[in-house]
Design a protein that fits this description.
169 residues; seven-stranded mixed β-sheet; three-stranded antiparallel β-sheet; 2% helix
Length: 169
């Protein structure tokens, strides 16, 4: 009599995605998102499931050490003429090579922060990049939306638009 063949045990991280207690939230290909820990109340974001990582446009960034750990400070505008400038700091979570849509590889700083999107909050990793020539100051890649959202690429701003303030007289 032969002994049974042992079955390979697949670690949970490599098995099927977690079972969601709530159905995924439907997003359009562009939405308004917030990064409340960074003081960003609302910003236009492109939801791009073709991109692995997420990116946030910064006009300037600088590195420093706080309590022996690497930190990054950065300044950004929300992409709207006349909008206020936001300055923030965050611990450096990681630094890694990122390939942009043009095939160019650059080393980028990643931070971990809270994303507020469509009434849901979750922690995401986002890199700091110069997205000056892009239409959207924030790009949310598939790792930011995985297991919580579904994207309908034919629709936009399913969770409302942020109204721009009237220009001052």
């Amino acid at each position: 009599m032969s002994s049974p063949i042992p079955q390979a045990q697949v670690p949970p991280a490599l098995s099927d995605p977690p079972v969601l207690s709530n159905p995924p939230i439907l997003l359009g290909w562009r939405e308004f998102a917030a990064l409340p820990r960074l003081g960003i109340a609302a910003m236009r974001a492109k939801i791009d499931t073709g991109a692995r990582s997420s990116a946030l446009h910064v006009d300037a960034q600088w590195r420093f050490v706080e309590a022996g750990a690497p930190w990054v400070g950065f300044r950004l505008s929300r992409g709207v003429v006349g909008a206020s400038v936001v300055e923030a700091t965050a611990p450096v979570f990681d630094e890694r090579e990122v390939t942009d849509s043009g095939g160019h590889r650059t080393r980028r700083v990643f931070i971990r922060t809270v994303l507020s999107l469509a009434g849901s909050e979750r922690e995401i990793d986002i890199n700091l990049a110069d997205r000056r020539g892009m239409r959207f100051p924030m790009l949310l890649g598939r790792t930011a939306v995985a297991h919580a959202f579904t994207v309908d690429p034919s629709r936009s701003f399913l969770h409302g638009r942020v109204r721009r303030r009237a220009p001052r007289a």
